[in-house]
Design brief:
The chain is built from eight helices and four strands. Helix 2 runs antiparallel to helix 3, helix 3 packs antiparallel against helix 4 and helix 6 crosses helix 7. It is 62% helix and 8% strand. Strand 2 and strand 3 form a beta hairpin. The chain has a four-stranded antiparallel beta sheet, sandwiched between helices. The protein folds into two domains: 138 residues, no CATH class; 110 residues, Reverse transcriptase/Diguanylate cyclase domain (Alpha-Beta Plaits), CATH 3.30.70.270.
């Protein structure tokens, strides 16, 4: 289908160039300048032949693609527009009639509409591709259970931040571990154990800024990367998180605590 469209468009461009040439040897006259009627080159047989070609192209496009997306819908519209244009041209024998101008106007508007559709389709494809890329990238750097950053991303970020750390731009790391998690996991099962991990992860995430990084670096081990935070401030943050974990516990099998350093 695409090959047929390409061949037809190429032929149309060649004919357009030949028709616009100033050389009499290369020019093709569709309308007699004296009688304002179409020349034998443009008569019913050629017109109906072109209509048949466009109709077959339309049928093949619908049959092979099922118009699965807006791109193929625009292709079908393109074929339909040219079929209609040819029918308008065949309805008159005079090149001076309004039908010729109407056909040209319809062809121009159809082409403009087709271009807008294709541009919209390109924009949609780009947006969908970008969304898939963002999801794929986030999945590659996030822990699937907690949606915190994973171990690999945390250590890569830590390496980058350490090279920029200084006395004026301190960097603090807090390592966290859930107390007696193995006993909770063995006693109540992995489902309850996952709830405990998710609860701790939510508390950690709620206590860091956008520039910081909260990550799950092991089974029940977490780490926080705090940018422009000194030791005393990091200690205060760790204490605030410890109190939040011990106070806000709902739906957990038993009370839990967290160790941080």
């Amino acid at each position: 289908v695409l090959s047929s469209c390409f061949i037809f468009i190429s032929a149309t461009l060649i004919l357009s160039w030949v028709h616009s040439s100033k050389s009499p040897l290369l020019s093709i006259e569709f309308i007699d300048n004296l009688t304002y009627t179409f020349t034998p080159l443009w008569h019913n047989r050629i017109g109906w032949l072109l209509i048949i070609i466009w109709s077959l192209t339309l049928i093949l496009m619908i049959g092979l693609t099922r118009l699965r997306n807006i791109f193929w819908y625009s292709g079908a519209f393109f074929c339909t527009a040219y079929i209609f244009t040819l029918l308008v041209l065949l309805s008159t024998v005079s090149g001076n009639a309004h039908s010729w101008n109407q056909a040209r106007l319809f062809e121009t508007l159809s082409t403009l509409f087709l271009i807008l559709i294709l541009l919209g389709d390109v924009f949609i494809l780009y947006r969908e591709s970008n969304e898939r890329y963002v999801r794929s990238y986030q999945n590659s750097i996030r822990d699937p259970l907690t949606r915190l950053y994973n171990r690999s991303y945390f250590y890569d970020t830590l390496t980058q931040r350490l090279s920029k750390a200084s006395a004026s731009q301190p960097l603090s790391v807090i390592v966290c571990d859930l107390d007696r998690f193995k006993r909770i996991n063995d006693t109540y099962g992995h489902v309850q154990g996952d709830k405990v991990i998710q609860f701790a992860a939510s508390v950690l995430q709620n206590n860091v800024r956008q520039d910081d990084a909260a990550a799950r670096i092991g089974g029940e081990e977490f780490a926080l990367l705090l940018v422009n935070i000194g030791a005393n401030e990091a200690l205060a943050i760790a204490e605030r998180i410890r109190l939040s974990v011990s106070e806000k516990q709902e739906g957990l099998p038993e009370r839990m605590t967290i160790s941080m350093g």
